[in-house]
C-alpha cells in the first residue's frame, strides 16, 4: 500500500534524481533537461521550507514527490513528479489529493499549478481548471507550461454535521422503508427497491461500510472508490433473497450486527423504520413518519403558510376522495371546467402514484372512470394543477427541491436546493451545485424549506428530508410533498460535497435515475464499459460515477449514473456522452449477445 509521508532532508539528492527521471520520461533532450536542472533541484533546506512530501510503498521505496509552496491564502503545487515505473498506478493522484488536503489545513484558498504540457491531462482529470499558459521561465526553448488553478475547501459544514465529520455505516434498506407504506407501485419481489439500494454507497461523503440486500459487482465498488477517493470500504451484500427487511436480516446475523453497531460509527439508513430502530438501539417514535403522507404534508404546508412570512409560496388546493367513484366525479367536474388535475396516492416513490391529467387526456381515454382504471389502487388525492408560464415563454426550471436534515439533538440543518428532472409527475433525476437554483427562487425555497425542517424537528422526526416544489407562471413556488428519507437529490449533494473536498470547490452534480442500456452486459463487460466512460468524461473535464449497476442485468437493462463538472455545458456534454454510449451498447454486442445474463 502506498502512503504519503514528510520528506527527509537527507533524501534531497535522491528526490532530485527522481524528479529528473520523471521529467525525462516525456522525451526531452539532454540540453533541455540540463537547463531545467537548477529549477527542479531539491536541496536539503528546501524539504521543510517547500513542504515536500513523498509517496512510499510498503517496501520503503519512494515512488513520487510533491511540494506545497507559498503563503496562504495563495499557494503553489511547486513539484509533483512520479517515478516513471510507477506512472499510471495512482501515485500522482494520491499526492495531488494530499496536497489539496494540506492546503485546506493551511488555509489556502487558491492553489496554482504550472504544469508540463504532457501532464495537463492529469491535472484536468484531477479537477483543476486551466486558466492560461504559464511563462516558460528557466525552461526557455521548451514548450510553455500550462497554468491550472484549484480552490481547496474543507468538507461542507452540513456534511460534517450529518455524520459528525467522520465515516459511517450505510444500510441500503430502501425496500424495507417502502414496505411500511404498502406502496402499490412496487412488485412483490421489491426489485426496483433493491436496485435503488445501491445508492447506499452515497449516503454520506465517505462510507466505512456498505450493507446491501442483493449482490453487487465487485468491479463497481472498486470503481466508485477510485472515483471518490475512498479507501477501506467494507461491503456486505447479498443478505436477502426476497424479504425486504434488511435491518432484520442483519440482526439475524449476530456477529455482523455486533460488528456494525459496535464500531462507534453512525448508522445511516435510506429511511427510518421500526426494524432499523431495533438494530440501531434507537426508540421508534409513533407517528414519526406521518408527514411522508402527501395529505399530511399538505396540511403541514397550510399551517406554515397561515402564519405568514412566505410571499413567494402558493399552496395548490387538495381534496381527499372518499373512494374511486368520488375521485372520478371530481376529475370529471374539473375536466368540464377545462382544468388539469394531479391525482396522487398517499404514498409513492419517485413520482410513482402521481399522475397529471389534462382535459384532453381524459377525453382521449374515454372519460374520468377510464383514466382511474390505470392508476394504482388505494386512496386517491385530487389536487389542483399548478400551471407554468405561457407556451413559448422561457420558463426555466419547473421542479425544485429543498434538502435538509434534523440531527439527533433536534436541530434542523439546511443542505441546499436542487433542480429536478420530472416528466408527467415522475422523477428522472436532479442537478445540484452553484447557480443551479435560479436567483428568484433561492430565498422562498430556503425560507420555506427551513420552516418545514423546524416543524419536522418539533414533531419528533430525526433524519434527512426534502420538500418538493413546482414553479408556477407567476414566479412562485408551490410545495407538493415532503420525503422523510434520503432521495436522489440527496445522493447528488453527498457526491458534490465529496468532490469539492477532493478536487476543489464548485462542482455541479447530476444524478440520472435511469439510463436505458441497449443490451444486457455480462459483468466483466459492464466494468470495461464503465471504465471507458470514466475516461471519456475525464477528457471532457467531467467525472462519471455509476450509481446503480445491478439493473444492468435485468431483461430491460438500465443504469443509474452520476456525472459531475464545473460548468453546465460540460455537465450536459457528459450526460449526453453517457446516454449515447448506453444506447450504443446494443450495437456493440449485437443481437446474439443482447440476452447474455450476468456471469
How does this structure look, described?
The chain has 21 helices and 23 strands. An eight-stranded antiparallel sheet has the order 20-19-16-17-18-21-23-22, sandwiched between helices. Strands 1-2-3-4-5-7-6 form a seven-stranded mixed sheet. It is α+β, with helices and mostly antiparallel strands.
What descriptors fit this protein?
single chain, 599 residues, alpha+beta, 8-stranded antiparallel β-sheet, 7-stranded mixed β-sheet, 21 helices, 23 strands, 36% helix, disordered C terminus
Short description:
With about 600 residues, the protein is of the alpha+beta class. The protein is about 35% helix and about 25% strand.
What is the element layout, followed by pairings?
Blueprint: E1 3-6, H1 12-24, H2 30-40, H3 46-49, E2 52-56, E3 62-69, E4 74-82, H4 91-106, E5 110-115, H5 120-125, E6 129-133, E7 146-150, H6 157-163, E8 168-171, H7 174-179, H8 191-196, E9 207-211, H9 218-228, E10 234-236, H10 246-251, H11 254-261, E11 267-269, H12 274-280, H13 294-306, E12 318-320, H14 324-336, E13 341-345, E14 354-357, H15 359-365, H16 368-373, E15 380-384, E16 399-406, E17 412-423, E18 426-432, H17 439-459, E19 463-471, E20 477-483, H18 488-503, E21 508-516, H19 523-540, E22 543-548, E23 558-565, H20 568-583, H21 585-589
Parallel strand pairs: 4-5, 8-9, 8-11, 9-10
Antiparallel strand pairs: 1-2, 2-3, 3-4, 5-7, 6-7, 12-15, 13-14, 13-15, 16-17, 16-19, 17-18, 18-21, 19-20, 21-23, 22-23
Helix pairs in contact: 19-20
Amino acid at each position: 500500500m502506498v502512503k504519503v509521508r514528510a520528506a527527509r532532508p537527507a533524501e534531497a539528492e535522491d528526490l532530485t534524481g527522481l524528479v529528473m527521471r520523471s521529467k525525462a520520461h516525456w522525451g526531452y533532450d539532454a540540453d533541455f533537461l540540463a537547463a531545467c536542472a537548477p529549477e527542479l533541484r531539491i536541496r536539503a533546506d528546501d524539504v521543510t521550507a517547500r513542504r515536500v512530501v513523498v509517496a512510499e510503498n510498503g517496501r520503503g521505496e519512494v515512488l513520487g514527490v510533491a511540494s506545497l509552496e507559498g503563503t496562504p491564502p495563495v499557494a503553489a503545487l511547486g513539484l509533483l513528479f512520479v517515478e516513471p515505473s510507477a506512472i499510471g498506478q495512482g501515485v500522482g493522484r494520491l499526492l495531488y489529493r494530499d496536497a489539496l488536503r494540506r492546503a485546506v489545513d493551511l488555509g489556502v484558498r487558491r492553489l496554482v499549478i504550472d504544469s508540463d504540457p504532457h501532464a495537463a491531462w492529469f491535472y484536468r482529470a484531477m479537477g483543476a481548471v486551466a486558466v492560461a499558459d504559464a511563462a516558460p521561465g528557466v525552461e526557455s526553448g521548451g514548450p510553455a507550461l500550462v497554468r491550472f488553478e484549484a480552490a481547496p475547501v474543507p468538507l461542507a459544514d452540513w456534511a460534517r454535521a450529518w455524520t459528525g465529520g467522520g465515516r459511517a455505516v450505510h444500510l441500503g434498506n430502501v425496500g424495507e422503508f417502502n414496505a411500511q407504506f404498502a406502496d402499490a407501485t412496487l412488485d412483490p419481489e421489491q426489485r426496483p427497491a433493491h436496485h435503488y439500494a445501491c445508492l447506499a454507497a452515497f449516503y454520506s461523503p465517505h462510507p466505512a461500510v456498505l450493507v446491501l440486500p442483493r449482490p453487487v459487482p465487485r468491479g463497481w465498488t472498486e470503481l466508485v472508490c477510485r472515483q471518490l477517493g475512498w479507501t477501506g470500504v467494507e461491503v456486505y451484500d447479498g443478505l436477502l433473497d426476497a424479504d425486504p427487511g434488511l435491518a432484520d436480516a442483519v440482526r439475524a446475523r449476530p456477529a455482523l450486527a455486533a460488528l456494525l453497531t459496535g464500531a462507534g460509527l453512525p448508522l445511516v439508513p435510506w429511511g427510518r423504520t421500526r426494524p432499523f430502530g431495533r438494530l440501531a438501539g434507537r426508540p421508534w417514535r409513533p407517528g414519526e413518519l406521518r408527514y411522508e403522507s402527501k395529505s399530511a404534508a399538505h396540511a403541514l404546508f397550510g399551517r406554515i403558510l397561515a402564519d405568514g412570512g412566505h410571499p413567494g409560496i402558493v399552496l395548490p388546493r387538495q381534496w381527499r376522495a372518499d373512494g374511486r367513484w368520488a375521485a372520478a366525479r371530481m376529475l370529471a367536474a374539473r375536466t368540464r371546467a377545462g382544468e388539469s388535475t394531479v391525482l396522487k396516492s398517499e404514498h409513492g416513490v419517485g413520482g410513482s402514484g402521481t399522475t397529471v391529467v389534462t382535459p384532453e387526456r381524459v377525453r382521449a381515454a374515454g372519460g374520468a372512470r377510464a383514466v382511474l382504471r390505470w392508476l394504482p389502487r388505494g386512496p386517491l388525492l385530487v389536487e389542483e394543477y399548478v400551471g407554468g408560464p405561457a407556451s413559448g415563454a422561457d420558463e426555466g426550471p419547473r421542479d425544485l427541491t429543498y434538502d435538509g436534515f434534523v440531527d439527533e439533538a433536534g436541530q434542523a440543518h439546511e443542505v441546499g436546493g436542487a433542480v429536478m428532472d420530472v416528466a408527467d409527475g415522475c422523477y428522472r433525476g436532479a442537478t445540484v451545485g452553484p447557480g443551479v437554483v435560479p436567483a428568484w427562487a433561492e430565498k422562498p425555497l430556503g425560507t420555506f424549506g427551513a420552516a418545514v425542517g423546524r416543524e419536522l424537528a418539533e414533531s419528533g422526526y430525526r433524519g434527512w428530508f426534502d420538500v418538493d416544489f413546482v414553479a408556477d407562471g407567476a414566479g412562485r413556488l408551490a410545495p407538493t410533498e415532503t420525503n422523510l428519507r434520503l432521495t436522489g437529490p440527496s445522493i447528488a449533494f453527498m457526491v458534490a460535497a465529496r468532490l469539492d473536498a477532493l478536487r476543489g470547490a464548485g462542482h455541479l452534480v447530476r444524478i440520472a435515475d435511469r439510463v436505458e442500456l441497449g443490451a444486457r452486459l455480462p459483468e466483466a463487460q459492464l466494468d470495461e464499459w464503465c471504465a471507458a466512460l470514466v475516461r471519456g468524461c475525464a477528457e471532457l473535464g467531467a467525472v462519471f460515477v455509476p450509481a446503480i449497476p445491478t439493473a444492468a442485468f435485468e431483461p430491460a437493462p438500465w443504469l443509474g449514473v452520476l456525472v459531475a463538472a464545473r460548468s453546465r455545458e460540460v455537465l450536459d456534454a457528459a450526460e449526453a456522452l453517457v446516454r449515447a454510449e448506453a444506447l450504443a451498447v446494443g450495437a456493440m454486442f449485437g443481437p446474439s449477445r443482447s440476452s447474455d445474463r450476468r456471469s
